[in-house]
Structures are given as C-alpha cells and as structure tokens.
Amino acid sequence: MEWSIQDISRLAGTTSRTLRHYGDVGLLAPSRVGSNGYRYYDAAALTRLQRILLLRELGLSLPAIADVLAGQRDNAQALVAHRDWLVQEKDRLDRQIASVETTIRKLKGGEQLMAEEVFDGFDHTQYQDEVVERWGKAAYESSDRWWSSKTAAEKKEYAQQQQALAADWMTAAGSGIAADSDEAQALARRHAKWLSGIPGLPGGPAGPTKEYLTGLGELYVNDERFAANYGGTDGARFVRDALAYYAEHSL
C-alpha cells in the first residue's frame, strides 16, 4: 500500500514542503515518484517518518537524526526505545493533568487544597534518596537548588541536551563500534562535560571523579529507568563500558 505526499502530510501533521525537504537532504526518500512527479510513500517510509518526527520532538537537528537512523537500522528495535521514553513521559503528563484538574475542581468547589495533590507529576526530587545514599545530602541539596533556580526554558534546553546525548549514545551502540574507540571516547568526554555542569556532584566544575563516573555507568545498567534512556540494557552496557574506560584512562 502506498500513500501520496498529500496524504502523508495531512496524517502526520506536517507539510508537503517539509517532506520534500526531508527527501532532498537524504532523510526520507519516497518509495517511488509517479510519472506526474508526485511522490508516494510505502509502509517502510511511514515507519521511518515516524522515527524522524519522534527524534525532532527530542530537539535533534536533521544531521543528528540522519546519524541516529544510520546507526539504528532495525526500526522495530529503535521504536521500542522510543516507546519506553514516551510511556515515561505519558505517565508524567497524565499525573500533571490529573493534578491540575484536581486543583481546578477544588478551587471551584471551595475545597481545601492538599500540597501532595497540587504538585503530583511535577516532582523533580524522585531520585533524592538514591542521590543522598550514593553521594551525600550536600550533593543532592546543591543540585536541587541549581535545578530549582532554572527557568522553564532553561530546563527544557537542558533536557534536550540530555536527550540528544542519549540519542548519540544509542547510535554509537547500534553501530557496533568498541567502547574504547575514538568515537565512543569522544561521547564519554562529552558526557563527562555535561555532568560537570551540575553543581554538587563529586568532582565539581572540573568534571566528575573517576569513582563517580564509573558508578554512574553501573547505575545506568542496573536501573531500567536509566537504561531506557540508552535503548535498553545493551545500550546502557555500552555506555557503562565507554565511561569506565574513559574514567580509567582520562581521569
């Protein structure tokens, strides 16, 4: 079965011009072009477009998306990672929606508000106990103050940086390169630099300590919530091994 470019643009909520641009830059080729010049797309092209749109929502540029798609040729496997991330986001948004609806209902009815209801789904302290246990109360309080001081735009930008980094890790893991390769170590260096921007973590602005970076890699593998950011346990193992090598040889 095939769909015309007009059908796809309408169903995907995009424009024909955007789809043609994706084709021109080699991101989404039509399955065929009719004698009249119209572009048509088959099921494989639809799946690829779905992945492109998901990655765009993560804030990735078109060249970055091309790299991700080139590194992850198994559409089903890649979409599993996307789905896991979307399920996490859906749960968080559902809780926020329910929280706001509860607030509206109680305000209209003159009922007493409960703080735990008002802020359900807005929790940025969900890993508090783990951070305190692993790295101390001071580390948590410092990073918490830093995060709370950020504007909504700054928080969104930071989340997009993290998501772009995670996407690049998944691409590297799917490409079959070794954890000690130059490409993987460049990602590990970038990961360490990203972490250095979080105050209160062991190592401070100079960058994470060897022990912290190694322990963080283990956490990525052992906790499925973190492993999902890297496409699952196999991807998290690649990140862990690359970070461990970087910590051993560069810190």
Tell me what the structure shows.
The protein has 251 residues and is an all-alpha fold. The protein folds into 2 domains: 3-57, Orthogonal Bundle (Multidrug-efflux Transporter Regulator, Chain: A, Domain 2), CATH 1.10.1660; 75-250, no CATH class. It has 13 helices and 3 strands. The chain has a 3-stranded antiparallel beta sheet with strand order 1-3-2. Helix 7 (128-135) crosses helix 8 (137-148) and helix 10 crosses helix 13. The longest helix has 35 residues, at 75-109. The model has no long low-confidence stretch (mean pLDDT 79).
- Tell me the total number of β-strands: 3
Percentage of residues in strands: under 5%
State the domain count.
2
**Largest sheet strand order:** 1-3-2
Fraction in helix: 55-70%
> Per the principal axes of the C-alpha atoms, what is the gross shape?
flat
SSE arrangement, N to C: EHHEEHHHHHHHHHHH
Mean pLDDT: 79
SSE-based structural type: mainly alpha
Distance between the termini: 55 Å
Count of alpha/pi helices: 13
Roughly how many Å is the radius of gyration?
21 Å
Unreliable spans: none
Largest sheet: 3 strands, antiparallel
SSE layout and pairing:
Elements: E1 3-4, H1 5-12, H2 16-24, E2 32-33, E3 39-41, H3 43-57, H4 62-71, H5 75-109, H6 115-118, H7 128-135, H8 137-148, H9 152-175, H10 182-196, H11 210-222, H12 224-227, H13 233-250
Antiparallel strand pairs: 1-3, 2-3
Helix pairs in contact: 3-5, 4-9, 7-8, 9-10, 9-13, 10-13, 11-13
